[in-house]
Amino acid sequence: MKVLVSEPIAQKGLEKLTQEGAVVDVKTSLTRQELLDVIGEYDALIVRSNTKVNEDLYQKAARLKVVGRAGNGVDNIEMEGATRRGIIVVNTPESNVVSAAELTIGLLFATCRNIPQLHNRLKERVWDRAGLKGMELLGKTVGIVGLGRIGSLVATRLKSFGMNIIAYDPYISDSRFKNLGVERKNKLEELMAQCDILTVHTPKTEETYGMIGKEQFKAAKKGLTVINCARAGIINEEALMEAIKNNIVKRAGIDVLEGEPHATSPLLDYDNVIVTPHAGADTVEAQDNVGITVAQEVISALRGEMVPNAVNLPTLPVQELDAIKAYLKLGETLGKMYYQLEKDAVEKVEIMYRGEVAALETSVVSLAILKGLFEPVLKERINYVNANVIAESRGVAVTESKKSSANNYLTLITLKVTSHDGKEFTISGTTFGKGELRIVEINGYEFDINPTPYMIIAENTDKPGVVGQMGTLLGVGKVNIATMQLGRKLTEQQAMMVLAVDSEVSKDTLQFLGGVEGILRVRFVKL
Ligand SMILES: NC(=O)C1=CN([C@@H]2O[C@H](COP(=O)(O)OP(=O)(O)OC[C@H]3O[C@@H](n4cnc5c(N)ncnc54)[C@H](O)[C@@H]3O)[C@@H](O)[C@H]2O)C=CC1
Ligand SMILES: O=C(O)CCC(=O)C(=O)O
Q: Which of 263, 272, 374, 448 is most buried, taking the most CB atoms under 10 A from its CB?
């Protein structure tokens, strides 16, 4: 596992990577060209907000499997290119939110009380407060745009200063607003017209970039204080400057600037604009949290384990992670069986979740099924990240259905594959205890199979002598049988035999088995 760290992360994170067996190169002052020249050697790349992870980089990154964002916002990472290539992107969304919220409040105090300006005067031995009268927070209204993790932390902290909190976030439920004691504004302009202080906490997206512009400042209350500790450009810098010149905005506290880290914004020259160099997450605590978390996630992702903060995968509630793990294994196992038992190209995949599993977030289990399904035949890389994209690109229709009851089982997953000639294949499995798996049905034959690394699966006419001959031939081929199960369809006088064996089976032995009278077909399955 070769990991390139292209921006500084905490020593504790680097130690974690090394302890887990990764070879870590910390190269934090590479030029873009140098980065492109070396990225091909690495399995994982860890970045913060300055490294642009985009198509240029992906094209050179033949081995890259994971991009770890040591932080929250992922706007410097091009997601579509990563997903298409099966590169998993992980971030640490919870690790630095307190620090970001605290810097927001710090900037709010600094701007409202002119702390940096007063500090600078006094450092120059000038004892003078003239022209720098501050503003009290008590009774003022703060308008929060984006009431997510950081927005909520800012809201609860500012309440303790006796402020009225209003917020605009169309994607947050009324009950969340109510629980936080924040008044919902359905229109941004309405919020602008009522707040004394505006603070933005949305991600940078196509929708939010420039969302506070000329029109919004026109609607604003005169004397507004503006804080941006989220991303440059959410508040348009030109519009902000104009609003400052027109005395609509009285002061601003800005942590993020266009063009950073080489920011040249004229805002830097305004006395009433207080700036910090994207320092929202720059605390010992946040950096330790971020470093350790990103290291853990990158290692887990490199080992093919499920990572809760994978950005280009469905999000999993942490409390469901343990329950889901066994289903992921089961799903992948069911998927893997198809192309080892059948040879027909897949046209349609139907996944049915019944019983307990139906109550969980199953989209990731469906990804595991697709991963397993295509793995035996695809040379290209397939994993949780690109499984959907690959199914789609191969014209495979995937559907998911759920039912709360599973008849004789507590929980049941059934995979039904329809091939291009309309032939149907079904396989069902269940889990029990501490993640034990069982395959309970294949093509209508009922079993209770503990899936093992090597299995022989044969269909035969249901008549005496077939099983005995199979045993003899396997003995000749020096293959030891561990367990054996038979599923029967009495009306059709056919049976399916599943033998768990201790080793690989040679092509010759399989050919001999196929020649036994009554054997209709025989397959070797490797899990
Ligand atoms: N300055 C710094 O060092 C740091 C900055 N950040 C930035 O802070 C921002 C917020 O982070 P979190 O609170 O963790 O994100 P979050 O995802 O928890 O919350 C973002 C909120 O924005 C809302 N939102 C999205 N589009 C919107 C729109 N068009 N209008 C109104 N609301 C919208 C979402 O519904 C969500 O509630 C991100 O941009 C992040 O990158 C995060 C950490 C450190
Ligand atoms: O310090 C950093 O890496 C930037 C933090 C940040 O903006 C984020 O986590 O979104």
A: 374
